[in-house]
Amino acid sequence: MKVLLREDIAGVGRRGDIVTVADGHARNFLLPKGKAIVATDGAVQQAEAMRRARDLREASARASAQTVAEVLGAKTFTVKAKAGNEGRLFGSVTAADIASALAAQAGVELDRKKIVADPIRTTGSHTATVRLHADVECTVKLSVVPG
Fold it and tell me: What span, in angstroms and rounded, lies between the C-alpha atoms of 40 and 43?
């Protein structure tokens, strides 16, 4: 059965796509939950409008992610952590600590799940990768200091 997806569904397609799915999947899950509608001529026109709106949203999200990436890539961020005499930390600097440092020093609020970094256990210079968008990643320079 051909259906028009009204939202992104993993393994099936994205919002605005016209896909062919099993009749039972459409009748028992997609249609009753409002996740899809049957693909008629009017629905095809609606799908085109959905795709155009999605493309515009993604383009603006990608552009804003690029500007944030430029801001984050240009600076070195300082993270304070308790450390011993030899530069070894008591505990570690996690993605949540990095996210709070970025928010305080650059004014960029990020979810900690978008930051990819191994736990940092020593003072000094380190890097972390920030995934801002599906197509946009940037490397953030960190300076871990005892404090």
Answer: 5
Q: What are phi and psi of 94, to 5 degrees?
A: -105, 180
Domain count along the chain: 2
The pLDDT-based confidence of 46 (bands split at 50, 70, 90) is confident
Q: Measured between alpha carbons, how far is 76 from 140 in angstroms, rounded to an integer? A: 7
Secondary structure element (H or E) that encloses residue 47, with its range: helix 41-74
80, 100 contact by CB (below 8 A): no
CA angle 65, 71, 76 (to 5 degrees): 130
Helix or strand or coil: residue 143? strand
Give the global pTM: 0.69
For 91, the domain range is: 66-146
The verdict on 76 and 131 lying in the same domain is yes
DSSP annotation of 7: S
Distances (CA, A) of 17 to 10, 39, 53: 13, 10, 12
Contact 90, 68 (CB under 8 A): no
